[in-house]
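Extended Data, panel c. Modelled sequence:
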Amino acid sequence: MTRAAERPDWRGVRALVMGLGTRQGGVGVARYLVAQGAEVTVTDLRSADELAPALAALAGLPIRFVLGEHRAADFEQADLVVRNPAVPRDSPWLALARAAGARIEMEMTLFFRACPAPIIGVTGTKGKTTTATLCAGILRVARPDTVLAGNMGTSALDALPHITPDTPVVLELSSWQLEGLAEHGLSPHIAVITNISDDHRNRYPSLAAYVEAKRAIARFQAPDDWLVLNRDDPQTWASRDVGAGRVVPVGHDADGPCGAFLVGDRLVWRWDGAETELLRRDEFPLPGPHAALNALAAAAAAILAGASPAEARAGLRAATPVPHRQEIVATVDGVCYVNDSAATAPAATLAALDTFRGRPLVLIAGGADKGADLAPLARRVAAEAEAVVLLDGAATPALHRLLQAAGARRISGPHRSMAAAVAAAAELAPPGGVVLLAPGCASFGLFRDEFERGEAFRAAVRARAARERREGTR
């Protein structure tokens, strides 16, 4: 793993945490810097009420809070500013801090420098959470102390006290987190890119800029590092020359002595021409064609980190769905309800449609605009879905028009609540069908994030299931 030559000493440093957030990263940063002896100020545009759980987690620590606003003096006087991933790197507040000589860091850059163990980093437009979780599950077969953190609601910095030089560490890394690593020339020892497709166009000026942000995961690798790439995805496979890391392909069967491949219905590991079967496709619990590729990438990274093929087999066979990712919530009145709220990009929704192809399907879609091209998604949905239920949001009117132009059979909404959307979907779904929440859009507006959106879906479905049980006992 490439890392800066020095491990900074934060004692006495005036540190400003910009964006406390609600997903534990900012909390972990603040706790870490206090423990390192820094003088910590937290600034966030949200109110104390909105940040109540995060503030409770920091209660009693010597931290100054500036909430509901940012103040220029805080940025001008800071020695160190740690920005939340949601803060754009071209923020004028960061420009103010840079002009005053402040050092700009992120949670991941702090962690990479402080972590004593080699790091496995996983990114991709879709599948990164599942792949990182599968990889950690494999490594935990032999090492229960394996750390799994990153872009998944847990702070990597909080895990530092428990990490030794041989502790397996797996991080899910978003494009925004990778921006910070790139600024400091940092890459993981083992990098994984699951796939790259159009996303976050509200943050990046072009698809090319987004692709470059993803490729940063490998840009600073050394010749003794590893880069695991999905050979079936053109954008991903074109990343193989980004850095100096040794490339290991994964995908459907291909020539070559090394890699992880799907050969017929078998997942295999091939090294120096010798092939080992990991497991058959029907032994892997997660559904969908994309799931096998995630499993291959996870197995490859874990084996490169020291796991045996037998441990890879055991870990994959024990896999369970990650919450909010094609998660079956319940079957109510003969209809299966699936929570794929983490499908915030069109490519993720298309993958979910692949999983349930051949079953009558009602899709719940729509939401906040990320600038992605929704036309291919609308054409596919119009051709395959029995009906579409739309959630309100900035992207929804355009998606509605595209669905109509593509000949969608039935469109309901837009709805201003998840309960109303689920109720509409239940009316439209035939027995034996699927109601699939896979929005293809961000959640902001109606929900705090995609996880709150998924929880709202779960609650609405479980309320229907409870009602069905009550009626069945009368």
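The longest strand covers residues 246-252. This feature is highlighted in the accompanying rendering.
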